[in-house]
Write a structure and sequence with these properties.
345 residues, 27% helix, Jelly Rolls, alpha+beta, four-stranded antiparallel β-sheet, 14 strands
Length: 345
């Protein structure tokens, strides 16, 4: 299948092929223009290096952000701006490779260690999405494409630094749930957990109001850490409205994944989000998904389940099975979570 980049660069392209026309629901939520509707900001330096009082407040803010929004921005995180830019540039260079070079990585299975493609799952998508992607498993085993030349070195360093950031955030989230700082890490064996880097390319689109970069969906895993190349397009569903996420330069946008919702027994919910496209600029976003080992069964933390007052809201499921379920089907909001949700009697 032709990449979106190649399609977008077709001479004289003035409209999109019908297969890319995304029909929005008639009751699609309005987009909020309220400046009050902006995702919370967490100062990472206060969470990790502040006074005991500052750390306590930061843990509370982190828990509130997870509960109220499921999305937050992280500033003062210590990952060098130069490294974030180098990673974004390297992904741009990968997408600039020839179609033939990229085809070397055209994996067919969701658990392939390197997979490059277009749309979400082009074999089952009824509507194709205006997006090319590169997905790489970087932990517990590190993988990397061999091209472009400097890609491997940059990816290795970026993966290491973003993982360290994620682990500290998970400590704070674990504390905010009253589970102690290492509970999530230990209970889900995150030392051997999966870390996936997904780079997304959204080229300019001649009819952006008809196309969709990524449809409304939630993420598998515990947390997703996102960086962008300064071009906006991410929208988050919040209180029956879509909210534009205009990220601060050099900040990470972080969101709660489905497996955090399961672990917290529904206290912290994964949030539906989508990616819009525009007709002027290419947007690159790079998501790092942090999850447990593929064979780990994830269920609610026992301490958060009380037979009388807080029954388990989800059944346990192997992370690998959940990923295969979500990634092999059409992407549809949070429908995947419905497979493991326990409905009240």
């Amino acid at each position: 299948m032709i990449s979106i980049k190649a399609l977008a660069e077709s001479p004289g392209l003035t409209s999109i092929p019908p297969t890319y026309t995304f029909t929005r629901s008639p009751n699609d939520e309005p987009v909020s223009d309220d400046p009050e509707d902006s995702i919370p900001i967490i100062d990472f330096s206060l969470l990790t290096s502040g006074t005991p009082d500052q750390r306590s407040k930061s843990i509370h803010q982190l828990g509130k952000a997870c509960q109220d929004w499921g999305f937050f921005m992280v500033i003062n995180h210590g990952v060098p701006e130069s490294l974030m830019k180098a990673m974004s540039d390297a992904c741009g260079e990968f997408f600039n490779l020839t179609e033939e070079e990229k085809r070397e990585y055209g994996g067919k299975h969701v658990l392939d260690s390197i997979r490059c493609g277009t749309s979400f799952n082009a074999s089952v998508d009824k509507v194709l999405f205006w997006r090319d992607f590169l997905k790489i498993f970087v932990h517990p085993q590190f993988h990397s494409p061999s091209k472009p030349a400097a890609f491997r070195e940059i990816l290795l360093e970026y993966s290491k630094r973003s993982r360290e950031l994620a682990m500290e955030l998970l400590k704070g989230i674990s504390m905010s749930l009253g589970l102690g700082d290492t509970y999530i890490q230990n209970a889900l064996n995150l030392e051997l957990g999966l870390q996936l880097l997904a780079a997304n390319l959204y080229p300019p689109c001649p009819e952006p109001e008809l196309a969709m970069g990524m449809p409304p969906h939630s993420d598998h895993g515990l947390l997703t850490l996102l960086i962008q190349n300064g071009i906006s397009g991410l929208q988050v569903q919040h209180q029956s409205k879509w909210v534009n996420v205009n990220s601060i330069p050099n900040a990470f946008v972080v969101n709660v994944g489905d497996h955090m919702e399961i672990t917290s027994n529904g206290k912290y919910k994964s949030v539906v989000h989508r990616a819009l496209v525009n007709e002027k600029a290419t947007r690159i976003s790079i998501a790092t998904v942090i999850g447990p080992p593929l064979d780990t069964v994830v269920g609610p933390a026992p301490k958060l389940v009380h037979r009388e007052t807080n029954a388990p809201a989800y059944t346990g499921i192997k992370y690998k099975e959940y990923m295969q379920l979500q990634q092999s089907n059409q992407l549809d909001g949070k429908s995947c979570l419905d497979h493991v949700r326990i409905l009240p009697a």
